[in-house]
Amino acid sequence: MSEASASHEVDSWRFTGSMIGKVLGSAIPDTPKHAPIPWAPFTKPLSEARVALLTTAGLSMKGDTPFDMEFERQNPTRGDSTFRMLRADATEADIEANHLHIDTGYIERDINVALPLPLLHGLAKEGVIGSVAPTHYSIMGFQGADSSQLENESAPAIAKQLISEEVDLILLAPV
Amino acid sequence: MGLVARQIEAAGVPTVTLNMIPAYQRLVGMPRVAAIEHPFGRPYGDVGDAERQRAVIDAALAFATTASAPGEVTHLPFLWHQEPKETHWHPAEPSPIIGLMKERAAKRAAKEATE
Fold first, then answer.
1. Does the CB of A26 have a partner CB in chain B at under 8 Å?
2. What is the ipTM of this complex?
3. Are B77 and B37 in contact (CB under 8 A)?
């Protein structure tokens, strides 16, 4: 299963299908058109680094307030802009997934497909990374026409929590 | 999502973003992008494929140590084991925005048919 080619240019549209590909692609300029990119050097050896994970799969701990899908059903061009904190020991059994744009069944069967916390613990045990952060994060990736609350409220709150827990590196994985 | 990576990086915490649509980099400008050609919903690998999941997280972590300039993109070499149509990544019901688009398209087609 782990077939890999020596070098491979990722095709952004391989899995989108033509309709979704056209819609998403129409928003993307042909040449870079973004503000200057921020940069925090990663200077610590990986074997000493505390690592956190973030997923956009709309995960919440069972018992916590789930992401609000009814809001999006009523407002199809908007999405829940809040975030959830997830415990480092969370497994499939501890989480629920709410996201209307993907089949969430895969992550509910194996959390490692999108938020590989069990794998991360293994890496810490092996000494590949220094430690697993106490807290991990989920947002719900679909923001539609307005991502300002996600950007200006949720993201800074996540950053604050990362800093308070002395996290050295975070891997973000959109779904 | 990329906007979140930018905010976290700006606050001083290094980020690596695994990304299935690296074309977005032109629009967003993420600090470090590890592009991966996996179907939506399973960025690290398929259910139970511990070998692939481990290889992907190893590659993403390694990229944190080698990326040397803001906006650097690496294309991870992994290939998915199914054809796109076999991946079944879509939700059982179309998302609200897709539903809305289909509704609008149907209305346009109905209007054109009566004109």
1. no
2. 0.94
3. no
Chain A residues with CB-CB distance to B18 below 8 A? 171-174
Please tell me the pTM assigned to this model: 0.94
Give tens-digit pLDDT for B16-43. Answer: 999 999 999 999 999 999 999 999 999 9
DSSP state, residue A144: B
Residue A6, pLDDT above cutoff 60: yes
C-alpha distances (whole Å) from A50 to each of A128, A135, A140 are 11, 11, 24
- A144 contact partners, CB below 8 Å, separation of at least 6: A72, A75, A76, A77, A78, A79, B97
What single string gives the DSSP state of each residue in B51-95? HHHHHHHHHHHHHHHH--STTEEEE--B--SS-GGGS--S-SS--
User: What is the C-alpha to C-alpha distance for residues A122 and A159, in angstroms, rounded to an integer?
Assistant: 25
Distance (Å) from the alpha carbon of B113 to chain A's nearest alpha carbon: 22
Strand partners, B34: B18, B74
| Three-class DSSP category at A134 | coil
Give the best residue of A13, A42, A68, A158 to mutate against chain B (max B CB count within 10 A).
A42
Compute how many other C-beta atoms are within 10 angstroms of the C-beta atom of residue A90. Answer: 18
Query: What pLDDT score does B35 carry?
Result: 98
Q: Burial level of A161, CB count in 10 A (0-12/13-18/19+)? A: middle
